[in-house]
Amino acid sequence: MKIGILTSGGDCPGLNAVIRGAVLKGDRVYGDEFVGFRYGWRGVVEGDMVPLDRHTVRGLSRQGGTILGSSRTNPFEGEGGGPENIQRMMDVNGIDAMIAIGGEGTLTAARRLVDEGGINVIGVPKTIDNDLAATDYSFGFDTAVEIATEAIDRLRTTAESHQRCMIVEVMGRHVGWIALHSGMAGGAHAILIPERPQSIEQICEWVLHVRDRGRAPVVVVSEGFHLDTMEEAHSHKGLDAFNRPRLGGIGELLAPMIEERTGIESRATVIGHIQRGGVPSAYDRVLATRLGIAAVDAAQTRQWGSMVSLKGTDVEIVSIADATGGLNTVPDYRYDEAAVLFG
Protein backbone atom coordinates (compact mmCIF):
# COMPACT_ATOMS: atom_id res chain seq x y z
CA MET A 1 0.00 0.00 0.00
CA LYS A 2 1.17 3.52 -0.79
CA ILE A 3 0.12 6.02 1.86
CA GLY A 4 0.30 9.81 1.83
CA ILE A 5 0.81 11.66 5.12
CA LEU A 6 -0.09 15.29 5.75
CA THR A 7 0.14 17.65 8.72
CA SER A 8 -2.40 20.44 8.55
CA GLY A 9 -3.49 23.39 10.68
CA GLY A 10 -1.35 24.85 13.43
CA ASP A 11 1.97 23.15 14.10
CA CYS A 12 2.25 21.10 17.26
CA PRO A 13 4.97 19.35 19.28
CA GLY A 14 4.86 15.65 18.37
CA LEU A 15 3.89 15.86 14.70
CA ASN A 16 7.23 14.46 13.59
CA ALA A 17 6.92 11.59 16.06
CA VAL A 18 3.60 10.59 14.44
CA ILE A 19 5.23 10.60 11.01
CA ARG A 20 8.14 8.51 12.29
CA GLY A 21 5.89 5.97 14.03
CA ALA A 22 3.70 5.53 10.95
CA VAL A 23 6.57 5.16 8.47
CA LEU A 24 8.59 2.74 10.59
CA LYS A 25 5.59 0.50 11.34
CA GLY A 26 4.38 0.54 7.74
CA ASP A 27 7.82 -0.11 6.30
CA ARG A 28 8.96 -2.84 8.70
CA VAL A 29 5.70 -4.73 9.21
CA TYR A 30 3.56 -4.18 6.12
CA GLY A 31 6.07 -3.21 3.44
CA ASP A 32 4.17 0.03 2.79
CA GLU A 33 5.50 2.95 0.77
CA PHE A 34 5.01 6.50 2.00
CA VAL A 35 4.96 10.02 0.64
CA GLY A 36 4.51 13.24 2.56
CA PHE A 37 2.30 16.03 1.26
CA ARG A 38 4.01 19.36 1.76
CA TYR A 39 2.19 22.09 3.68
CA GLY A 40 -0.93 20.15 4.61
CA TRP A 41 -3.96 20.16 2.35
CA ARG A 42 -2.14 22.59 0.07
CA GLY A 43 0.20 19.78 -0.94
CA VAL A 44 -2.77 17.50 -1.54
CA VAL A 45 -4.61 19.88 -3.87
CA GLU A 46 -1.38 20.85 -5.67
CA GLY A 47 0.07 17.34 -5.81
CA ASP A 48 3.20 18.55 -4.01
CA MET A 49 4.80 15.60 -2.24
CA VAL A 50 8.11 14.13 -1.13
CA PRO A 51 9.07 10.48 -0.51
CA LEU A 52 9.26 9.28 3.10
CA ASP A 53 11.32 6.28 4.16
CA ARG A 54 12.93 5.01 7.34
CA HIS A 55 16.05 7.08 6.68
CA THR A 56 14.00 10.26 6.24
CA VAL A 57 12.35 9.85 9.63
CA ARG A 58 15.45 8.87 11.58
CA GLY A 59 15.61 10.74 14.93
CA LEU A 60 12.38 12.64 14.31
CA SER A 61 10.59 11.84 17.57
CA ARG A 62 12.50 14.50 19.53
CA GLN A 63 12.18 17.20 16.87
CA GLY A 64 9.52 19.90 17.15
CA GLY A 65 7.42 21.32 14.34
CA THR A 66 6.80 19.23 11.23
CA ILE A 67 9.24 18.26 8.48
CA LEU A 68 6.34 18.36 6.01
CA GLY A 69 5.25 21.90 6.80
CA SER A 70 1.69 22.94 7.48
CA SER A 71 -0.97 25.38 6.34
CA ARG A 72 -4.62 26.18 6.86
CA THR A 73 -5.60 25.45 3.26
CA ASN A 74 -9.17 24.30 2.65
CA PRO A 75 -9.04 21.16 0.44
CA PHE A 76 -12.42 21.96 -1.07
CA GLU A 77 -11.23 25.23 -2.58
CA GLY A 78 -8.90 26.07 -5.45
CA GLU A 79 -8.33 24.56 -8.87
CA GLY A 80 -7.18 21.20 -7.51
CA GLY A 81 -9.63 21.07 -4.62
CA GLY A 82 -12.64 18.86 -4.09
CA PRO A 83 -13.02 15.07 -3.81
CA GLU A 84 -12.90 14.32 -7.54
CA ASN A 85 -9.69 16.26 -8.15
CA ILE A 86 -8.04 14.82 -5.04
CA GLN A 87 -8.97 11.25 -6.02
CA ARG A 88 -7.58 11.90 -9.51
CA MET A 89 -4.30 13.13 -8.02
CA MET A 90 -4.09 10.02 -5.82
CA ASP A 91 -4.76 7.71 -8.77
CA VAL A 92 -2.13 9.38 -10.93
CA ASN A 93 0.47 8.98 -8.17
CA GLY A 94 -0.60 5.50 -7.12
CA ILE A 95 -1.60 6.62 -3.64
CA ASP A 96 -4.05 4.25 -1.95
CA ALA A 97 -4.82 6.19 1.22
CA MET A 98 -4.00 9.26 3.29
CA ILE A 99 -3.23 9.79 6.95
CA ALA A 100 -4.42 13.28 7.93
CA ILE A 101 -2.84 14.61 11.12
CA GLY A 102 -4.67 17.66 12.37
CA GLY A 103 -7.22 19.26 14.61
CA GLU A 104 -10.89 20.14 14.29
CA GLY A 105 -10.65 21.89 10.91
CA THR A 106 -8.38 19.27 9.36
CA LEU A 107 -10.45 16.31 10.53
CA THR A 108 -13.73 17.96 9.55
CA ALA A 109 -12.32 18.35 6.02
CA ALA A 110 -11.14 14.73 6.10
CA ARG A 111 -14.59 13.55 7.12
CA ARG A 112 -16.17 15.46 4.24
CA LEU A 113 -13.72 13.92 1.78
CA VAL A 114 -14.69 10.45 3.02
CA ASP A 115 -18.43 11.14 3.06
CA GLU A 116 -18.70 13.08 -0.21
CA GLY A 117 -15.96 11.50 -2.27
CA GLY A 118 -15.14 8.13 -0.80
CA ILE A 119 -11.52 9.18 -0.23
CA ASN A 120 -9.53 6.70 1.86
CA VAL A 121 -8.52 8.73 4.91
CA ILE A 122 -7.43 7.87 8.45
CA GLY A 123 -7.32 10.70 11.00
CA VAL A 124 -4.82 11.39 13.76
CA PRO A 125 -5.92 14.00 16.36
CA LYS A 126 -3.55 16.92 16.82
CA THR A 127 -4.37 19.85 19.04
CA ILE A 128 -2.54 21.52 21.88
CA ASP A 129 -5.95 22.78 23.04
CA ASN A 130 -7.08 19.18 23.75
CA ASP A 131 -10.48 20.15 22.38
CA LEU A 132 -11.29 17.13 20.19
CA ALA A 133 -14.01 14.80 21.39
CA ALA A 134 -13.54 11.02 21.28
CA THR A 135 -9.99 11.16 22.64
CA ASP A 136 -9.06 11.75 26.26
CA TYR A 137 -5.85 13.59 25.40
CA SER A 138 -4.08 14.60 22.21
CA PHE A 139 -0.35 14.95 21.73
CA GLY A 140 1.03 18.47 22.04
CA PHE A 141 -1.17 19.29 25.01
CA ASP A 142 1.32 18.10 27.62
CA THR A 143 4.13 20.13 26.03
CA ALA A 144 1.96 23.25 25.82
CA VAL A 145 1.03 22.95 29.49
CA GLU A 146 4.69 22.60 30.48
CA ILE A 147 5.61 25.73 28.51
CA ALA A 148 2.69 27.72 29.94
CA THR A 149 3.51 26.59 33.47
CA GLU A 150 7.12 27.71 33.11
CA ALA A 151 5.92 31.09 31.85
CA ILE A 152 3.62 31.45 34.87
CA ASP A 153 6.47 30.58 37.21
CA ARG A 154 8.68 33.23 35.62
CA LEU A 155 5.98 35.90 35.59
CA ARG A 156 5.21 35.27 39.25
CA THR A 157 8.70 36.48 40.24
CA THR A 158 8.26 39.85 38.51
CA ALA A 159 4.72 40.12 39.86
CA GLU A 160 5.98 39.66 43.42
CA SER A 161 8.85 42.08 42.87
CA HIS A 162 6.54 44.92 41.79
CA GLN A 163 3.31 43.84 43.57
CA ARG A 164 1.57 43.79 40.22
CA CYS A 165 -1.34 41.73 39.00
CA MET A 166 -0.18 39.56 36.09
CA ILE A 167 -2.70 38.28 33.54
CA VAL A 168 -1.28 35.37 31.57
CA GLU A 169 -3.12 34.58 28.33
CA VAL A 170 -2.75 31.04 27.03
CA MET A 171 -4.22 29.26 24.03
CA GLY A 172 -7.65 27.66 24.10
CA ARG A 173 -10.23 28.68 21.51
CA HIS A 174 -13.23 26.74 22.74
CA VAL A 175 -11.95 24.89 25.79
CA GLY A 176 -9.83 25.79 28.78
CA TRP A 177 -7.68 22.70 29.35
CA ILE A 178 -4.34 24.49 28.95
CA ALA A 179 -5.41 27.28 31.31
CA LEU A 180 -6.81 24.80 33.83
CA HIS A 181 -3.75 22.55 33.97
CA SER A 182 -1.07 25.25 33.75
CA GLY A 183 -2.99 27.47 36.16
CA MET A 184 -3.27 24.75 38.75
CA ALA A 185 0.37 23.72 38.27
CA GLY A 186 1.57 27.33 38.46
CA GLY A 187 -0.53 28.24 41.48
CA ALA A 188 -2.69 30.82 39.71
CA HIS A 189 -5.09 32.80 41.89
CA ALA A 190 -7.81 32.72 39.22
CA ILE A 191 -8.32 30.66 36.06
CA LEU A 192 -10.65 31.95 33.35
CA ILE A 193 -11.86 29.51 30.68
CA PRO A 194 -14.37 29.63 27.79
CA GLU A 195 -16.70 27.15 29.45
CA ARG A 196 -17.26 29.37 32.51
CA PRO A 197 -17.86 33.07 31.79
CA GLN A 198 -17.21 35.25 34.84
CA SER A 199 -18.10 38.79 35.82
CA ILE A 200 -15.37 41.42 36.10
CA GLU A 201 -16.59 41.95 39.67
CA GLN A 202 -15.87 38.32 40.58
CA ILE A 203 -12.41 38.47 38.97
CA CYS A 204 -11.59 41.65 40.87
CA GLU A 205 -12.82 40.10 44.11
CA TRP A 206 -10.34 37.24 43.67
CA VAL A 207 -7.56 39.70 42.83
CA LEU A 208 -8.26 41.90 45.87
CA HIS A 209 -8.39 38.91 48.16
CA VAL A 210 -4.90 37.94 47.02
CA ARG A 211 -3.61 41.50 47.49
CA ASP A 212 -5.10 41.64 50.98
CA ARG A 213 -3.06 38.56 51.90
CA GLY A 214 0.11 40.38 50.82
CA ARG A 215 0.54 38.45 47.59
CA ALA A 216 0.77 39.51 43.94
CA PRO A 217 -2.23 38.16 41.97
CA VAL A 218 -1.66 35.91 38.97
CA VAL A 219 -4.62 35.31 36.65
CA VAL A 220 -4.48 32.72 33.85
CA VAL A 221 -6.98 33.20 31.01
CA SER A 222 -7.77 31.20 27.88
CA GLU A 223 -7.83 33.20 24.65
CA GLY A 224 -11.45 32.06 24.16
CA PHE A 225 -12.69 33.29 27.55
CA HIS A 226 -15.34 35.99 27.63
CA LEU A 227 -16.89 38.00 30.41
CA ASP A 228 -20.52 37.37 31.24
CA THR A 229 -21.33 40.72 29.60
CA MET A 230 -19.74 39.69 26.28
CA GLU A 231 -21.62 37.70 23.62
CA GLU A 232 -18.50 36.02 22.21
CA ALA A 233 -14.74 35.72 22.61
CA HIS A 234 -12.61 38.79 21.93
CA SER A 235 -11.20 38.95 18.40
CA HIS A 236 -9.67 41.76 16.38
CA LYS A 237 -7.46 39.85 13.91
CA GLY A 238 -9.91 38.86 11.18
CA LEU A 239 -10.74 35.31 10.03
CA ASP A 240 -8.65 32.26 9.26
CA ALA A 241 -8.92 29.97 6.20
CA PHE A 242 -11.89 28.16 7.76
CA ASN A 243 -13.70 31.48 8.44
CA ARG A 244 -13.12 31.26 12.18
CA PRO A 245 -12.19 34.41 14.13
CA ARG A 246 -8.50 34.65 15.01
CA LEU A 247 -8.65 34.98 18.78
CA GLY A 248 -6.28 36.75 21.11
CA GLY A 249 -6.14 39.88 23.22
CA ILE A 250 -8.54 39.10 26.06
CA GLY A 251 -5.68 39.56 28.54
CA GLU A 252 -5.00 43.07 27.25
CA LEU A 253 -8.70 43.79 27.59
CA LEU A 254 -8.88 42.57 31.19
CA ALA A 255 -5.71 44.22 32.54
CA PRO A 256 -6.91 47.86 32.45
CA MET A 257 -10.33 46.84 33.74
CA ILE A 258 -8.77 45.11 36.75
CA GLU A 259 -6.38 48.02 37.38
CA GLU A 260 -9.19 50.58 37.22
CA ARG A 261 -11.40 48.67 39.66
CA THR A 262 -8.76 47.51 42.13
CA GLY A 263 -6.03 50.15 41.92
CA ILE A 264 -3.48 47.36 41.44
CA GLU A 265 -1.02 47.90 38.61
CA SER A 266 -1.86 45.16 36.10
CA ARG A 267 0.03 43.75 33.14
CA ALA A 268 -0.95 41.19 30.50
CA THR A 269 1.33 38.71 28.80
CA VAL A 270 0.27 36.64 25.79
CA ILE A 271 2.31 33.46 25.55
CA GLY A 272 0.98 32.77 22.05
CA HIS A 273 2.85 30.55 19.64
CA ILE A 274 5.64 29.82 22.11
CA GLN A 275 3.26 27.10 23.34
CA ARG A 276 3.54 25.36 19.99
CA GLY A 277 7.30 25.55 19.64
CA GLY A 278 10.32 23.58 20.75
CA VAL A 279 10.82 19.89 21.41
CA PRO A 280 7.89 17.74 22.57
CA SER A 281 7.78 16.38 26.09
CA ALA A 282 8.56 12.71 26.71
CA TYR A 283 4.84 12.01 27.18
CA ASP A 284 3.95 13.61 23.85
CA ARG A 285 6.73 11.76 22.02
CA VAL A 286 5.41 8.43 23.24
CA LEU A 287 1.73 9.24 22.61
CA ALA A 288 2.41 10.63 19.13
CA THR A 289 4.47 7.56 18.18
CA ARG A 290 1.73 5.21 19.37
CA LEU A 291 -0.91 7.11 17.38
CA GLY A 292 1.21 6.99 14.22
CA ILE A 293 1.63 3.23 14.58
CA ALA A 294 -2.11 2.78 15.18
CA ALA A 295 -3.00 4.90 12.13
CA VAL A 296 -1.05 2.56 9.84
CA ASP A 297 -2.75 -0.45 11.44
CA ALA A 298 -6.15 1.16 10.77
CA ALA A 299 -5.19 1.75 7.14
CA GLN A 300 -4.27 -1.91 6.69
CA THR A 301 -7.73 -2.96 7.88
CA ARG A 302 -9.38 -0.31 5.64
CA GLN A 303 -11.10 1.54 8.46
CA TRP A 304 -11.57 4.65 6.33
CA GLY A 305 -13.19 7.61 8.00
CA SER A 306 -11.86 6.55 11.38
CA MET A 307 -9.51 8.27 13.80
CA VAL A 308 -7.04 6.87 16.30
CA SER A 309 -7.66 8.05 19.85
CA LEU A 310 -6.50 7.66 23.43
CA LYS A 311 -8.95 6.12 25.89
CA GLY A 312 -7.37 5.93 29.31
CA THR A 313 -3.99 4.46 28.44
CA ASP A 314 -5.20 2.47 25.42
CA VAL A 315 -5.16 3.56 21.78
CA GLU A 316 -8.50 2.83 20.11
CA ILE A 317 -10.20 3.43 16.76
CA VAL A 318 -13.20 5.78 16.64
CA SER A 319 -15.16 7.54 13.93
CA ILE A 320 -13.91 10.93 12.73
CA ALA A 321 -17.55 12.01 12.92
CA ASP A 322 -17.54 11.29 16.66
CA ALA A 323 -14.37 13.36 17.09
CA THR A 324 -15.62 16.39 15.16
CA GLY A 325 -19.25 16.24 16.28
CA GLY A 326 -18.54 17.89 19.62
CA LEU A 327 -15.89 19.40 21.84
CA ASN A 328 -13.89 17.94 24.69
CA THR A 329 -14.87 20.64 27.13
CA VAL A 330 -13.71 21.09 30.71
CA PRO A 331 -16.43 19.54 32.91
CA ASP A 332 -17.84 21.56 35.77
CA TYR A 333 -16.37 19.32 38.45
CA ARG A 334 -12.83 19.85 37.12
CA TYR A 335 -13.24 23.62 37.18
CA ASP A 336 -14.81 23.52 40.63
CA GLU A 337 -11.78 21.59 41.89
CA ALA A 338 -9.51 24.41 40.74
CA ALA A 339 -11.87 27.18 41.95
CA VAL A 340 -11.31 26.09 45.56
CA LEU A 341 -7.78 27.50 45.13
CA PHE A 342 -8.83 30.91 43.73
CA GLY A 343 -8.36 34.19 45.58
From TrEMBL:
Binding-site residues for Mg(2+), renumbered to this chain: 104
Keywords, comma-separated and alphabetical: ATP-binding, Cytoplasm, Glycolysis, Kinase, Magnesium, Metal-binding, Nucleotide-binding, Transferase
Gene3D superfamilies cross-referenced by the UniProt entry: 3.40.50.450, Phosphofructokinase domain
Subcellular location: Cytoplasm
Keyword set includes Cytoplasm: yes
Coiled-coil residue spans: none
Subunit and partners: Homodimer or homotetramer.
Name used for this protein in its record: ATP-dependent 6-phosphofructokinase
